[in-house]
Structure prediction request, 451 residues.
Amino acid sequence: MFKKEKKVILSAFLTISTALFIANPIEAKSNKDESKLEAYLKFSRVLNLIEDQYVDEINTSTLINKALKGLLSNLDAHSAYMDAKSFKDLNIQTKGEFGGLGIVVGMKKGVLTVIAPIDDTPAQRAGIKAGDIILKIDNKSTLGMTIDETVSLMRGKPKTKIKLTVVRKGESKPLVFEIVRDIIKIQSVKHKYIYLDKKKQEKVLYIHISSFDSKVVNSVQKILKENPDAKGIIFDLRNNPGGLLSQATGLLDMFIDKGVLVSQKGRDKEENTVYKAHSENTNTKIPITVLVNGGSASASEIVSGALQDTRRGVVIGEQTFGKGSVQIVVPIGKDEGVKLTVARYYLPSGRTIQNKGVTPDIIVYPGPVNKKKESELVIKENELKQHLKSELEKLDGNTTKEDTNNTLEDNNTSKASKNSKKVITQKELYKDAQLKSALDVLKVLLLEKGN
Prediction:
């Protein structure tokens, strides 16, 4: 056995050596090439050992595929070797011809983590949340799986069922969700109004962007054109998993008139790109606040981070996911391919978001606004007038005309009754502490601006 192994290794050594000397006979003598040869020989030796002595017979092609799979997955969470099935699935996915859950996942600390469920999709309706760790898909453990393997398992025919077992922070035991796959259709941009003063018709725009698809820039431009009198903008990028870089830079270019928006740097100089702002058709005056959380990733981190770095917007919420790498897909033969990380994104200040994310200017956790509880013995301000009016009626039998001035809540509620889909009421604001904080900060920015 030893003689056979030695013969195979010697043959591999001669083949590799010959190839290197033909390619560059001078460099083959260097320490670097000697080290490379030693590494190739180690690989050949282990490969031959498995072929000869592993308990089950495995052909060389299968072994090489397994080796490539392990090699790429150990580089980082997003690089991957794609066999014929995975490569075909990728092509299907890019054409949008698949049934799914509406969930974006990533590897965080080595475990499969939900970046964000997409709004109005099966995953979101079932109750999947950003930050959930997916422990099992149906009855298969995700430990040791690549992202591509897990995505392949979750994708399937529309109207078929799938079971996800997730671990959620704060829960004493894993949660099980049964979800029905569906064709994922996303309306990436939605907007509403928050009225500051109904009499003056002063309002701010609330623009929710669920993902950066090809329609984002045109949709936001249309909203701004239809609302030239808007006093400010709240961009909600919570649970936005990212999307097209061109849409992220296009959105930033609408509000930043000069300097770097984002840069892309890799080892290969051809991958290095700098995206700069243009002064044409740029609104540098309107105040902006941005909402983010742990489900904000990639393109949404670029937008929030760039607005923060350029002091063009105030970022509010929670730490973002930290996905700032660039992947390319290189076909290997007809039916296979390699997805490889080739660069990282860098914000205007030069910092990277990879594995770090964006830290908000103001940390606000989700949930309702905490209101101070008043003693039941104290007559509340909104009850005082009615109380005094009743006392007057007891004395002289007269009635006092009720004050008809509207409060801010009345303004919003009244407006909402006419167009409830487009106006956020005070009641709704107080259910969302992050949104309420974003509005409060926007009001401060408006005061500084002199509005």
